[in-house]
Amino acid sequence: xxxxxxxxxxxxxxxxxxxxxxxxxxxxxxxxxxx
Length: 35
Prior knowledge:
Blueprint: H1 2-34
């Protein structure tokens, strides 16, 4: 059960990391437009 929790945690971190990689450049571009 502990291993499953760790894998679920890693999966969430991986998804969050992926979301940051996708969204962060978009955020920077939109932020630059409002400057």
